[in-house]
DNA/pantothenate metabolism flavoprotein C-terminal domain-containing protein
Amino acid sequence: MDAPNGSQDTEQTLDSQVKAFFDSAPPLQNRNDIIQKLNHFIQLNSLSSENGIGKRIVCVTSGGTTAPLEQRCVRYVDNFSSGHRGATSTEYFLKAGYAVIFLYRRGSFQPFCRSLPDDPLLDCFEATEGLNIQVGEAYSKAVKTAIVDHHAAVNSGLLLKLPFSTIFEYLQMLQIISKPMKDIGPRAMFFLAAAVSDFYVPWKDMVEHKIQSGSHILDVKLVQVPKMLSVLRKDWAPVAFCISFKLETDSNILIKKARGALEKYNMHAVVANELSTRKEQVVVVTIDDKITVQRDKSKADDDVENPLIKLLSQRHSAYIEDSKRMR
Ligand code: PAZ
């Protein structure tokens, strides 16, 4: 028998890593409920609209995944992501006419709620003399926008919100979402802004109970999370328009790393951002382009996501047209 060549070897390794990840992951409690909600959402938004085809649907991932250290989890490895990028982008995708599946980290920023204070319940509301509760003057506009716009998007069936916490939940949910997204072909987009753990403790290797203190060194073996972007592009939803993100703290390596990810995972675009300037500027890297996108600083309330989503929405439309011509 011939020895497998290098790339087959790598593929087999990835396949076995992916299988090991899903085999050992604790099953989602609400799997059937998620599948039902998704199918309904995608069906609803696939009914033909004014142009005779269904809406474009984007899955926006947002916030950071945790990697638990114990099965009855007390401690976990987390990251900095606030979910601001995903929540803001969701608002602009809705404005651009998309239906949005918002896959977000529990407790992270929510669409339409970005201008609310950290503790909205206690800070936005006040008790009157008669002990009735009313919205305080300072936040009345922000609260109204949050409630009205959020309810409008959810109630009209344009926004489906699905929360995750752990890397196990996130990747299982992304796989579940990919299934019906695959069926809608190039109308589907993935906008993968979540900061996904690079390392995790496989469930079967994890201690059940709280790790006890007492020794000077905590010896926990973390293994690399399989590179699911490859699997998403190759198997889960090969025709969907796929945008991933690359974050670095060293601007000297950012574009090189983004280009590497673009080629390695066969993305349609990689959005490169640097930690300290991520709310001001991003660079969209494609196979033949490198476009710097900036927030309009002359407007106090402009977001970098405004021009970013405009650009990606145009690219997605062109991709859909190209796909039609190739059929
Ligand atoms: O969530 P946030 O608004 O605080 O930050 C956004 C971001 C930097 C997490 C996102 O733009 C991003 O780059 N996500 C991918 C990170 C990575 O795994 O490289």
